[in-house]
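Hey, quick one: can you model this chain's 3D structure?
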Amino acid sequence: MFILLLVVAVLQIILFFKLWRMTNEVHDFWKSQAPSVPNDCTKLEFMRLSAVTGNMDFVRKEFLTHFYYSVKKAFEDSVNGHYEDVKETDKDGKDVIIRKFISNKDECLTRSIQPFKDKLEQQLKKIGEELPERIQQMETYRDFYSVVLKEDIE
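Sure thing. Here's the predicted structure for all 154 residues.
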């Protein structure tokens, strides 16, 4: 019985070190696969470096990521609203200027995202890529969110 326990203990120790080495190898593998950005290199410089070295998948992914966040930020900024001077007539019949907060989510959802699509299309053409079909089908913020979220936002 003692010999059996000793064998099991030794096998567990061996297994522990094998798993430890394997985890380090996986970590080293992923580290070698990820593009490394030099410390003195900006993101734009790194994208140029990636394009020069032929890492077009990385450049394409960055262009699409920038498109997504640009559209999202523009929508959020417009939904958050803004102040606008509105000319109204008060109860005495005098014209007065009132500062009103304007925000209309439904109106914002119907605005075009064409400028963002045009910019992305130009960027992708530079690296020999086409605009993805799903993005070609988008016309408004509502289309953008329905594709991204697979549902219509209300």
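One thing worth noting: Strands lie at 82-89, 95-102.
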